[in-house]
Amino acid sequence: MSDRKPETDSKKPIIILGIESSCDETSAAVTKDCNVLANLIADQKIHELYGGVVPELASRAHQKNIVPVVDQALKESGIKKEELSAIAFTRGPGLIGSLLVGASFAKATALALKIPLIEVNHMQAHVLAHFIRNKDAKVPSPKFPFLCLTVSGGHTQIVLVKDFLDMEVIGETIDDAAGEAFDKAAKILGLPYPGGPLIDKYAQTGNPLSFKFAEPNIPELNFSFSGLKTSILYFVRDKMKEDNNFVEKNLNDLCASIQHTIIKILIDKLTIASKQLNIKEIAIAGGVSANSGLRNALIEKGKKLGWKTFIPSFEYCTDNAAMIAIAGYYKYLKGEFVGQDIGATARYKI
Ligand code: KG4
Ligand code: ZN
Question: What is the signed CA dihedral for 282, 314, 330, 75, rounded to 10 degrees?
């Protein structure tokens, strides 16, 4: 990795093209300092047919989408490619075939435009979504150090955020991620992929205390969701033996109870972490932070315990390139650029 300091003219804005392709969303964004000028996301409906993301199909779709998505992002931002200061891309973690599409595109474009290339850790970028600024939204950002519960389809982490690029994972899942728990539970109920948003929707009119599922007993700040999944599977299987229409008749209550259990597991650990570290600036990030129950639960807990809570706007919860561009901006300020020998990596710790 080269550590060349950027040639910054303090008055000149830093314009970053961000590229995200770690899973099943092809996204490109253009930022000017901390402001988002455009954030385009092409999602891939094809995976619905298979009940989950098919890696081979995902990389093919990225290949097809990346040029039009970048083109549209530049158009919407009103920025010419010659005006870009640097290109930031997701290096990992994620599906390797998908990551390689974004990485190759970013490398080739940086080379052609003769501008710096910046690699970004996807999980770090989810946290940095809290520093995205929109012209019309003057939301405050958390102050360092803060805790961030980062919950997505592949990860569940409690992150101690000491500075923009200085983060430490202090707790994480030992098996399934929270988003995976939502999606697998939804699959058991016969709902299509991704099931998280659908559980959220049906839960709105259900009773969260209708059904009780097993809660894990995992030491320290770590999480586990595989036992919950098994508990839901056996419960539904037994009930269906008694009444074949059980799920249909109780869908809202089932969704509300499942959601309630997942949220309780997350918020309980976050509360322990806050007490242990004596930190009351508490944020959430990642796809599952779009969940309305989790957003409300965080606000309610915050009121009780005197937390200052931070929740990203919906468009920056799930995968998006604006968060990659913002991470790129902070790396640009530190001159953290990489050479053409950089690769993508499926596993990438914060
Ligand atoms: O961060 P993300 O877009 O991609 C990964 O990096 O994994 O997160 C995707 C996950 C999926 O599991 C999806 O079901 C979940 O976030 N998700 C939700 C909601 N919106 C997205 N889960 C519960 N409620 C939601 N509203
Ligand atoms: Zn993500």
Answer: -170
- Interval between CA 190 and ligand 2 midpoint (Å): 24
Q: Quick one: which atom of ligand 1 is closest to the CA of 292? A: 26
pLDDT tens track for 137-160: 667 899 999 999 999 999 999 999
> What is the bridge-based pairing of β-strands 117-121 and 15-20?
unpaired
Binding site membership of 293 for ligand 1 (Cβ less than 6 Å)? no
Ordered strands of the 156-163 beta sheet: 166-172, 156-163, 146-151, 281-285, 308-310
Q: In this predicted model, what pLDDT tens digit does every residue of 173-224 receive, in sequence order?
A: 999 999 999 999 999 999 999 999 999 999 999 999 999 998 999 999 999 9
All domains of the chain in start order, with CATH: 15-138+317-333 (3.30.420.40), 146-312 (3.30.420.40)
Tokens of 88: 């930031």
CB 286 near ligand 1, within 6 Å:
yes
Q: β-strands 146-151, 281-285: how paired?
A: parallel
* CA nearest ligand 1 atom 13, residue: 196
CA of 263 to the centre of ligand 1 (A): 14
pTM (2 decimals)? 0.94
Q: What is the CA radius of gyration of the chain?
A: 21
Which portions of the chain are predicted below pLDDT 70?
1-10, 135-138
Residue 154 Cα: closest atom of ligand 1: 7
* Nearest to 119, CA basis, from 346, 327, 347, 286: 327
